[in-house]
Amino acid sequence: MIVVMKESATESQIRNVTQKLNDLGYDVHPDRGVNQTILGVVGDTRSLDSRILEILDGVTEVLRVTEPYKLASRSFKPSDTIIEIQGVKIGGPEVIVIAGPCSVESESQIHEIAVLVRKTGGKILRGGAFKPRTSPYSFQGLGVKGLKMMCEAAKANHLVSISEVMEISQIELMEQYIDIIQVGARNMQNYSLLKELGHIQKPVVLKRGLSARIEEMLMAAEYILSGGNSQVIFCERGIRTFETYTRNTMDISAIPVVKKRSHLPIIADPSHGIGLRDKIIPMARAAVAAGADGLMIEVHNDPDNALSDGAQSLYPEQLEQLIPELRAIAKVIGRTIG
Amino acid sequence: MIVVMKESATESQIRNVTQKLNDLGYDVHPDRGVNQTILGVVGDTRSLDSRILEILDGVTEVLRVTEPYKLASRSFKPSDTIIEIQGVKIGGPEVIVIAGPCSVESESQIHEIAVLVRKTGGKILRGGAFKPRTSPYSFQGLGVKGLKMMCEAAKANHLVSISEVMEISQIELMEQYIDIIQVGARNMQNYSLLKELGHIQKPVVLKRGLSARIEEMLMAAEYILSGGNSQVIFCERGIRTFETYTRNTMDISAIPVVKKRSHLPIIADPSHGIGLRDKIIPMARAAVAAGADGLMIEVHNDPDNALSDGAQSLYPEQLEQLIPELRAIAKVIGRTIG
Amino acid sequence: MIVVMKESATESQIRNVTQKLNDLGYDVHPDRGVNQTILGVVGDTRSLDSRILEILDGVTEVLRVTEPYKLASRSFKPSDTIIEIQGVKIGGPEVIVIAGPCSVESESQIHEIAVLVRKTGGKILRGGAFKPRTSPYSFQGLGVKGLKMMCEAAKANHLVSISEVMEISQIELMEQYIDIIQVGARNMQNYSLLKELGHIQKPVVLKRGLSARIEEMLMAAEYILSGGNSQVIFCERGIRTFETYTRNTMDISAIPVVKKRSHLPIIADPSHGIGLRDKIIPMARAAVAAGADGLMIEVHNDPDNALSDGAQSLYPEQLEQLIPELRAIAKVIGRTIG
Amino acid sequence: MIVVMKESATESQIRNVTQKLNDLGYDVHPDRGVNQTILGVVGDTRSLDSRILEILDGVTEVLRVTEPYKLASRSFKPSDTIIEIQGVKIGGPEVIVIAGPCSVESESQIHEIAVLVRKTGGKILRGGAFKPRTSPYSFQGLGVKGLKMMCEAAKANHLVSISEVMEISQIELMEQYIDIIQVGARNMQNYSLLKELGHIQKPVVLKRGLSARIEEMLMAAEYILSGGNSQVIFCERGIRTFETYTRNTMDISAIPVVKKRSHLPIIADPSHGIGLRDKIIPMARAAVAAGADGLMIEVHNDPDNALSDGAQSLYPEQLEQLIPELRAIAKVIGRTIG
Prior knowledge:
Four copies of one chain form a homotetramer.
Chain A lengths: L1 E4 L5 H13 L3 E6 L4 E6 L8 H4 L4 E5 L19 E3 L2 E3 L5 E5 L6 H14 L3 E3 L17 H13 L3 E6 L5 H7 L2 E4 L7 H7 L6 E4 L6 H12 L6 E5 L17 H8 L4 E3 L1 H5 L2 H13 L4 E5 L17 H17 L6
Parallel strand pairs in A: 7-8, 7-14, 8-9, 9-10, 10-11, 11-12, 12-13, 13-14
Antiparallel strand pairs in A: 1-3, 1-4, 2-3, 5-6
């Protein structure tokens, strides 16, 4: 951390800031320039609130020189982390396709879709049992029954399963039936939930919050990693901007940025990122072209009658057409799709 | 809800959309204009996902004509809701001052501050026991011990108390010690938590999420209201924008907008909205001038050594100067500060 | 346009709104529902300020049912517009590569780069002569001398040229030396400039403003189109969001959205969208995969010593590697790169 | 400027960055910490593009320690700048009220409004002659005729006048008829226009762009100031956010932030900031309470029939009620309204 003093800062103000830092246990390296003095702060400033210094007389700005996250950063672990679940490897040369319905609706629905996912080359089956809905008047998911259906459909088709957890009390159940636990965008900073997920043995997909900076997503992962669970997969799914023609603005650039800053894998969810079926296909292609380690796509055997998010679910034949295209794009950048 | 057909829409497309709506249980009023046909949808469309229609052939746009929230809306209840806790009325002519530290740190700290709050005219004591922190390496609060200290300090000074709940398992404890339960910005769409708060008998302060539209805040309240708890107080605390000179951008205009759309009270939290002590005072004045029903301000007996958010806590003497100013501004618009 | 009355609206309020609309020359189709009355406004409401109605007593909302733009919309012209300049076709099956330095710096620099662009398969040479810089203390471009250098370098290498216009007085000069006129992001709503460009015979590349909604970009095109110049090419180059790890957030989804709403071509500029060399390559791939009609890329013979934007300019060998990759991706979606 | 090297940076990378900086004419102060090396850059880095360094091997981040603006900054000129026009002082203890219609429509209209403005205590008459409109199909202003009408109405009522300039060619005319030149939000970064305004002798009101950071507004002022015109007045008028219930989000906190960073005055324009008449009054109060040096308010003798922005114009009687309220609020913070 660096404390920049004002040009007009007095000697006594500089001494006061130095004293404050010493009291907090830090060493100070002063650099007295022609125009202004700059104080280098030596020590672990990761949990130091920079505003404590900013508010002191004579200070003009306080700048961080270290990333606030540690375990998630590439400087902590330079090589890519590959997360393996039942032989499926996320973060390696293969781009993993995760597909399935928004919500599990019935045994026959999830089985029919699981067969399709397997056939097209998908490796992981997605499906919601506990649904976060903006309106309390909307369908809220099948709950435990849904988890069991997911579990059976995935096993029967040799697929790995993923589903969303909404609260701490659901974790135990999720662990019993599901292979990968998903944290939704609205819970990205639900710290109580993240802490608990730090103590389980299953991989966690952490979706980027609607207004979360990439740095904050890396910090949220830190809650899980520091608890002992090192299997975190990031997921870009669109951020909130002023644009109104799309539901969210999918930040494709987050993919190369995260790959550079962190050793953990990142996948993309164009279904939620864009929200309308006809835009999902170009965005899926774009995400693979930009280097995503996986794609999470909503598909439904009968989107027109889906109980939730039907408008952003692909038709089965759309998925069957899309995968070979994605495979060809992956090949261009030296990757594969199974 | 209104479905706008393309100018080029065919008769068969119009019939198809009409059929789809009928299947979903809605009546349709077609309005055949010179250029295009518009279909009025009759029935309760509050939980209908408009994208199901948007994706149909021949449709150009789907527009809502009713607000998606109901119990929170002023058309449902035209008169102001006044929430009374031990004689303190929020939403009436008096502007209520809520003050206290970011975190409860010790018995002496919270007592000293409670005395100050009472003396300056504050009616409610704030203080965090469970703290949501961006970094897992930061101070996380005193927990139950903190709640007990809050409870005693408030009672001893004839103040109402407010503190933040972070997860469902804490609700029972909160109910035992605290008068008003606060839902933090990061939990504004933690639907599991909101549902549980719909079943308690205590008022809930619902803070606006960092990237929440006002409409979404009203929808979040709907989760609590529809559970049977009608005592919801909104809190504007700053939204996320591209500006970097302030921590958040406090949306003062949310105050008159919420007052018009909803019958529920709205308070403002300039401490979190702005994040630096020297800007809090002008923003507190602005919030009262714009019609806020209350102000939540962080104050600390020793901000320089606070364990959290010291930089956004006022010094005791600053609070003592501020309140009379706010009282004079309140008077200009026909309100009082106790 | 549709005026939604409040549930509590009185007959006299409905009459008043109807009268106001009649006075403005519109017919009104009332639709009296069970809960509320909706007034359909018949006539060309493109230039009607909806707030005039919104402010009337008894009105709850005013909704547009027609797009505010006309000549730019696909409903006005359903088939793709292909813009041809000296045999180069933008908007057809070929994805056009536009490359060159940020600023023209010298004759040898622009010639050397032009040779490279031609060799790698680029069709259009870019280069700035008049530079919009955030700081008045930065390099402001070579002016007319730069235009002449551009012109010669392009001709000598059988390339089309493009350069940015900053003010009306420069248009005449630009027309003399340059083939395609570019309007920068900061001038997207410089209406005086747009109007003048409506009267020239050269194609205009209109860059999306940093905070422009797609609808506003289409409206800005309307200024040019309605003046008689039908050759407008949109350019996505990143929007402003809260993210701080990238300079802007490139909105890749704008590509399929514009292709659906408008008949005009859209290209992408990943150099400005992302701002750092190492992220440009994945974003260029993503833009082609998402369906862009062209790519504008900054390349420099000596980026480390460029007078402006060196950090976002590719090295020559990077461009030589990138183009074959883009060509392979284009092929996957049935397009070519020359 | 400070260059932060990666923990893994090699000696040769550090030497390379140092060399690059020396080549650019800067001295380097290295600070070798336990974990990483930090290079302090000595010299005027105001026009140095930090990305040139960011892209070098071994560099993790580049931080500015000096503000990029100079003449606008309070460290350059610590005392408040007061701008005086015909005895009206902006930036002193008096809060100046600027009022008038969106557009000048006729002689009688502007005269009638000027009388009202004078009577209520306003000091400056606003009114547009050249109008920037999102749609080319909307009313574009009366042009020169409008300027003349403004000039006469202002003089007849002992008011100072202000009107918006849209392009360089209009400056001469504006100078002839108008006292204060306004640069609209969409032109805040129209550098050609700003440069020209640096050469005139009249005060300039510079409106904040819809997506402009405060820092960029200060930089835009630098274009005018460095040309020799030191009379710049900032104007906060709302920024673009994700909120849809208001037209823009008025950033009231920009007022205290600008007052701290710059010596120049700042006024607020709640009419454009909020866009609907019924919210303007609370926002006007809030702006005065937060310390604005002036208020720009749209008022119309007949808002229901205004040719532009009628919905955001106050009725005459609303202005007459508002001013005494603002005066009372100003008094609370030690200021006056004439």
